[in-house]
Design a protein that fits this description.
86 residues, single chain, three-stranded antiparallel beta sheet, alpha+beta
Length: 86
């Protein structure tokens, strides 16, 4: 799997934010970062959750519509990728 430097940086930011306060909020991100997170989600390195718990089945539609109640959290696969890069 090949990640760009921007994707790696954002993956690290998601991990730190996840450890500090349960995830990186969509409201903290610009459009470019949201696009990068969509790719990281598609790769299974990051998951998106609703602010009040897991998103329903239509979470991709909500994410694409720009729902800012989402939080991004790192997955086990994302942690493994960061370990390999260290």
């Amino acid at each position: 799997m090949h990640l760009s430097p921007a994707e790696i940086s954002l993956l690290r930011e998601v991990r730190v934010s996840d450890e500090d306060h349960g995830g990186l909020r969509a409201s903290e991100l610009d459009a470019e970062e949201l696009a990068l997170l969509t790719r990281l989600c598609d790769l299974g390195l990051v998951e998106v959750l609703m602010e009040y718990g897991e998103a329903p089945d239509g979470e991709e539609d909500e994410r694409d519509a720009g729902d800012n109640g989402n939080a991004y959290r790192i997955t086990g696969a994302g942690v493994a990728v960061l370990r390999e890069l260290a």
